[in-house]
Amino acid sequence: MTTKKAETYAIISIADLANIDFAQIGETNENTIRKSLDETEFVIKYNVEPTFIADGTVVLLQTLTHAEALTLMSTAEWSEPIIEE
Question: Alpha-carbon distance 29 to 72, whole Å?
Fold first, then answer.
């Protein structure tokens, strides 16, 4: 029995968005990626390291597990506060 490799989540500078080959990651285009609220960073996920990372075209700011990515996405930098009425 083979075990599926856990997805890797990567935080990348928005300046590198044009260098992303969406065919190699778990998103379809720049409209489906999650951006930080200030739009300076975005997150991608992958099972196999994309060539644009392996060859240094895109430099990662941070790599995360799924749990770490969920924690980051819930911070004030990535999520609008919920205002209760």
Answer: 22
What's the rounded Cα separation, in Å, for the pair 69 and 56? 22
Tokens, residue 17: 């968005």
Give 2-33 pLDDT, tens digit per residue. Answer: 556 689 999 999 999 999 999 999 788 888 89
8-13 sheet: strands from edge to edge: 34-35, 41-46, 8-13, 60-64
Residue ranges per domain, the chain?
Answer: 8-73
DSSP 33: S
Token pair of 24 as six digits: 């190699």
Q: How many percent of the chain have pLDDT more than 90?
A: 76
Tokens of 14: 């928005």
